[in-house]
Design goal:
Blueprint lengths: L1 H20 E16 L5 E3 L4 E12 L2 E11 L21 E8 L2 E9 L1 H6 L37 E9 L6 E8 L30 E9 L2 E9 L5 E12 L2 E11 L9 E13 L2 E12 L5 E11 L4 E12 L6 E12 L1
Antiparallel strand pairs: 1-2, 1-3, 1-17, 3-4, 4-5, 5-6, 6-7, 7-8, 8-9, 9-10, 10-11, 11-12, 12-13, 13-14, 14-15, 15-16, 16-17
């Protein structure tokens, strides 16, 4: 009996130590709303990515931590795994699946996640990188660029799979962020300068180059800046500069400029330039979001977009939103598309 009690006591003690050293968190977002596009019928849509995630850290001692993060993305109106272009189902852990170490050297992770540019740039976009049609990040802020042109069907265009991620410590406001992708996830096909029958990057053939993404960020009081450079697996290149400032305690102003070069895969007019300006203004529980931007591909009409939105916080985790956007020009059909949405976002 005494031995049994001792065993129970020891197990309890070890469980307490493990709990103190390891922290695991379940988190997520549920976002759904009513959306009306000028050329489509009323529909149930989303403003933000709907996520179910698991993340945790383990204290290894001497300032070293092990960490992991797994993130599922799903459609709120059907409950299915998030779909990509053409209704293709995306990976189970579409958001990210990474494991790594963190210490005085910074943070190193392996797996799948947003590239350094795609992750850093959201701080300089008025909708914080949300995929809503009112936002700018998925099109104008990336100048129509894709980080993952040779990924498997359904993959999102702003992540690397089979990649190494490094974030340096922040020193005097400066931080370096780097992502390097491996060739094993880059199986094509991609037509490029070829034909459908004979694509430039055939299916099953690895890319000829390693994709990479690098950003340098700087924060100094109310101001923040970013410079970025990224090359994908078909050697399209993008560079960007961005900045933001808290002009007043409740007013954030931001701007960014992007330039994409596709000379390796297109026969003419390889350059695309884009810029956006935006603002967030907080009024008590409410916030106004506004922005305007243009994208100018060589030889193609400009895309112009103006958007405005409003968020009203019911609590720290729940807010209502209303967005309106007008997008004109480019290659879209019809030439002008107006989008309106109302919805609710809850984080847990």
């Amino acid at each position: 009996m005494k031995k049994s009690l001792l065993a129970v006591a020891l197990l309890g003690a070890f469980a307490g130590v493990a709990q103190a050293q390891t922290a695991v968190q379940i988190y997520g977002t549920v976002d759904a709303g009513i959306t009306k596009r000028s050329d489509q019928t009323l529909a149930i849509g989303k403003r933000a990515n709907n996520t179910l995630g698991f993340k945790g850290t383990e204290d290894l001692g001497n300032g070293l931590k092990a960490l992991f993060q797994l993130e599922i993305r799903y459609e709120p109106d059907t409950g299915t795994i998030e779909q990509g272009a053409g209704g293709l189902q995306r990976p189970l852990f579409q958001g990210q699946s990474r494991v790594g170490l963190q210490g005085d050297f910074g943070m190193v992770r392996l797996g799948r996640g947003l590239t350094a540019f795609q992750e850093s740039s959201t701080a300089f976009e008025p909708w914080h990188g949300l995929p809503t049609p009112a936002g700018f990040q998925t099109d104008l802020q990336v100048a129509g660029y894709t980080s993952d042109p040779l990924g498997y069907p359904g993959n999102s265009t702003n992540r690397f799979s089979n990649a190494i991620f490094y974030n340096s410590p922040e020193v005097l406001g400066f931080q370096l962020n780097t992502t390097i992708g491996m060739k094993e996830a880059l199986g094509g096909p991609f037509v490029g300068k070829g034909t459908t029958a004979a694509p430039q990057y055939p299916a099953g053939k690895e890319a000829s180059t390693l994709p990479y993404s690098i950003t340098g960020t700087y924060k100094n009081g109310p101001a923040a800046f970013m410079v970025a450079n990224e090359r994908n697996a078909v050697e399209s290149r993008l560079w960007s500069i961005a900045g933001s400032v808290m002009a007043m305690p409740d007013l954030k102003l931001m701007a960014s400029y992007q330039r994409q070069n596709q000379e390796n895969t297109v026969r003419a007019n390889p350059i695309t330039k884009a810029w956006i300006i935006g603002a967030n203004y907080t009024m008590g529980p409410g916030k106004v979001l506004a922005g305007y931007g243009q994208k100018s591909p060589d030889g193609v009409a400009k895309t112009k977009q103006a958007s405005i939105g409003y968020e009203y916080s019911l609590s720290k985790r729940t807010y209502l939103y209303a967005d309106a956007s007008k997008k004109k020009g480019g290659v879209q059909v019809p030439e002008t598309i107006n989008t309106y949405s109302l919805g609710v976002n809850h984080a847990f």
